[in-house]
Amino acid sequence: MNPLSTFKYIKNNISKVSPILIAMMVSVLLIYIFSLVTKSAIDITKLTGTNFFSKYTIVYSNSEEPIPKDYLNKITNDNNVGNVIPLISEYGYLNYSGVFGSMSMDVLNFYEKDIATIASTLNMKLVEGRLPVENKNEIIIPKRYALQNKLKIGDYIGSEVSSSYVIKGKFKVSGITDGPVMLGVISDNKMGVPRDKVLKQSILYSVNNLKDKDLINYISKDTPKNILIMDYYSISKQIDSVLESVNGLSHMLNMIIIIVLCISLGNLNYINFINRKYEFGVLVAIGYKKTTLYFKLWKENCTVCLLGYIAGILLSTLIVFILNLTVLYANGKSIPLWNSAGAITSLIIPILVSFLSLIAPIKELRRTDPLDVIGGVI
């Protein structure tokens, strides 16, 4: 017989430890599912924004003044630049609704011969249809957006179809893409603007090594007022400022749950200890040190909390998997099944609770006289 065995105690006292285990499981479930939903929002910002700018930087003039010649020469001759492509224009955007709010994805206008290069660089795979033909009022859209809006090849979108589309005109869906970037692409040059003229006004260039900032530092220094630059770091900074409120809400929720758990589980542990006072009195009487019994209490509590943590993670994953399969995938949405940051944050709960909820039981044990306990019971 091992009176200090943690697993024997849990096995023989399922009814006593179940409230603590269930409370921990539900709390971890709430925190972890919230972290998964938050991660889905972050993933959408990457799909609709930062993933594009991790491959391409946009430089354009917002006036009739062209991009400075030294800028163009520097970009064209830089070893970190893969290709330079004229951007005819931005053509509006399309709204995509995620699980946690909505985001807008750009619709960009390119020359027909450049679209394949852009799609290849961005790893946008054409899963249905074909690329748009120049001046045929055609568009390619992401698969997620097509699923959400019940669109298929041959359907029409645009302001002439519905005011919900923030792109002027009427465009036929010629292709559907899938990959790490959500982007609408058209090829409209009905005005016949020469390619070399567009290259002086609006370009995007691909970046081979994102960590090499020499070029972006050069063109960002003393930038003329008419020149606008959209790069990975500036876009990420804007998005991070938006996500700060979501992270703040997450931290506040974590703190509230930890405080409530510490209070409730502290009371449960205290009640359990009072019911086990005779057991601890006997152990002290036969020679066990109180420090050893403190450790026994912590091991029992920590084990139950960790079991609740594991059950909460597994249950959260199962719930999200079923939700994705039955509802979200069909509507072009999804929640990730794993979030390492969320799992680590959730792990803080059982660790803190396993320590803080023992304050009251340890204080009671410290005041306990084994002879009084045993004498009172016998």
Report on the structure:
Helix content is 55%, strand content 17%. With 378 residues, the chain is of the alpha+beta class. Strands 3, 4, 5, 6, 7, 8 and 9 form a 7-stranded mixed sheet that branches. Helix 2 (14-53) packs antiparallel against helix 11 and helix 10 runs antiparallel to helix 11. The protein is elongated and about 100 Å long. The two termini are 22 Å apart.
Give the arrangement of secondary structure elements.
Layout (H helix, E strand, L loop, with lengths): L5 H7 L1 H40 L2 E6 L7 H9 L3 E6 L2 E10 L2 E9 L2 H10 L3 E5 L8 E5 H6 L7 E2 L13 E8 L5 E3 L8 H4 L3 E6 L6 H7 L6 E4 L1 H44 L1 H9 L4 H39 L11 H17 L2 H9 L2 H8 L1
Parallel strand pairs: 4-9, 6-8
Antiparallel strand pairs: 1-10, 1-11, 2-10, 3-4, 5-8, 6-9, 7-8
Helix pairs in contact: 1-10, 2-8, 2-10, 2-11, 8-11, 8-12, 9-13, 10-11
Helix content: 55-70%
Strand content: 15-25%
Describe the main β-sheet briefly.
7 strands, mixed
- Radius of gyration over all CA atoms, rounded: 30 Å
Order of helices and strands: HHEHEEEHEEHEEEHEHEHHHHHH
Instruction: Tell me the distance between the termini.
Output: 22 Å
Whole-number mean pLDDT: 88
Would you identify the regions where 5 or more consecutive residues have pLDDT less than 50? none
| Form type | elongated
Which structural class is indicated by helix and strand composition?
Answer: alpha+beta
| Structure summary, number of beta strands | 11
Count of helix runs? 13
